[in-house]
Amino acid sequence: VGVPLVFKSSFDKANRTSSKSFRGPGLEEGLKILEKVKLAYDLPIVTDVHESGQCEAVGKVADIIQIPAFLCRQTDLLVAAAKTGKIINIKKGQMCTSSV
């Protein structure tokens, strides 16, 4: 078919409204799962990061690092993601103007 396919999944959904809601398998286990998917299906992986400290580990597995809209203005997070050398997808928050 010729359509590029990318697998997107999150290891942690940090934006849940209830602290009792399931957030995901966490960084370490989640990255193991994503790596298995990447190898088994030969697909590029995209996942999001919420903290600067996650970027290095995520960059070892993901082909694309996504910054959630609610974190799009966190400079330290953006810099840490960029330092991985991976493609960065920054989702634009509603609070941002077109000049950001």
TrEMBL record:
An example molecular function term from Gene Ontology annotations: 3-deoxy-8-phosphooctulonate synthase activity
Gene3D superfamilies cross-referenced by the UniProt entry: Aldolase class I
Record localization: Cytoplasm
UniProt key word Cytoplasm: yes
Name of the protein: 3-deoxy-8-phosphooctulonate synthase
InterPro entries with a match to the protein in the record: Aldolase_TIM, DAHP1/KDSA, KDO8P_synthase
Chain ranges of the DAHP synthetase I/KDSA domain: 3-97
Substrates-to-products reaction catalysed: D-arabinose 5-phosphate + phosphoenolpyruvate + H2O = 3-deoxy-alpha-D-manno-2-octulosonate-8-phosphate + phosphate
Keyword entries, A-Z: Cytoplasm, Transferase
Pfam families: DAHP_synth_1
